[in-house]
Automatic annotation (TrEMBL):
<dbReference type="Pfam" id="PF04364">
    <property type="entry name" value="DNA_pol3_chi"/>
</dbReference>
<dbReference type="InterPro" id="IPR036768">
    <property type="entry name" value="PolIII_chi_sf"/>
</dbReference>
<dbReference type="GO" id="GO:0003887">
    <property type="term" value="F:DNA-directed DNA polymerase activity"/>
</dbReference>
<dbReference type="GO" id="GO:0032298">
    <property type="term" value="P:positive regulation of DNA-templated DNA replication initiation"/>
</dbReference>
<dbReference type="GO" id="GO:0006260">
    <property type="term" value="P:DNA replication"/>
</dbReference>
<protein>
    <submittedName>
        <fullName>DNA polymerase III subunit chi</fullName>
    </submittedName>
</protein>
<dbReference type="InterPro" id="IPR007459">
    <property type="entry name" value="DNA_pol3_chi"/>
</dbReference>
<dbReference type="GO" id="GO:0003677">
    <property type="term" value="F:DNA binding"/>
</dbReference>
Length: 190
């Protein structure tokens, strides 16, 4: 079977490239695309919906970073994760402590340059595409309730699509919350 047929048979979720320099032998190396979910928000309740998404990821075993550019929003999310559901507790922190022996499952931060320590990132605010490669799963928002925010969401979606290294999926919030995520976390080793 020619190599291009093998590459095409792998499926849409993977891309391949040729490695090795042995004459006459070409190996195909599979690289998993980063899964990006764009969540349709039809009402302006992003903080609450971020908590719903964090809970979903946490319950499925993902460690999560939530990125926001605003420290006051970070503290609002911190308070919400303690109080938004009486029966729910999601261990989280707002600081990275390199001397700590324990890692919280969820990190809330406004720092763009983070060490690789979580499986997924929830973008309360957008990050540039080059900051997303350290994560296995990315959740972004399509804020359809506001025309200007929706336009920015569309631009981010198109930019990620054009890069070609991301597998994009657009879902309503309820669809995402009911979905069994196909990408399972791989724990980091020190």
């Amino acid at each position: 079977m020619p190599l291009h047929d093998v590459s095409e048979s792998i499926g849409r979720n993977k891309r391949s490239f040729h490695a090795g320099f042995t004459p006459g032998i070409r190996e195909t190396v599979l690289v998993q695309k980063i899964k990006v979910y764009f969540i349709d928000l039809s009402i302006s309740n992003k903080t609450r919906h971020t908590c719903d998404i964090v809970e979903k990821l946490y319950e499925q075993g993902f460690s999560v970073t939530v990125f926001t550019k605003d420290s006051s929003q970070k503290h609002t999310l911190d308070r919400m994760l303690w109080t938004w559901k009486q029966e729910s507790f999601i261990p989280h922190t707002t600081e990275i402590d390199p001397d700590s022996d324990t890692d919280e499952a969820v990190l809330l931060t406004e720092q763009e340059d983070l060490p690789v320590r979580t499986d997924a990132v929830v973008l309360y605010d957008p990050l540039p595409p080059e900051k997303l490669h350290k994560y296995q799963l990315v959740v972004d928002f399509a804020e359809v309730y506001d025309k200007a925010r929706l336009q920015k969401s569309r631009q981010r979606f198109k930019q990620l699509r054009d890069i070609g290294e991301f597998e994009l999926e657009y879902l309503k919030l309820g669809e995402f919350l009911g979905k069994e995520l196909a990408y399972h976390p791989v724990k980091q080793t020190s």
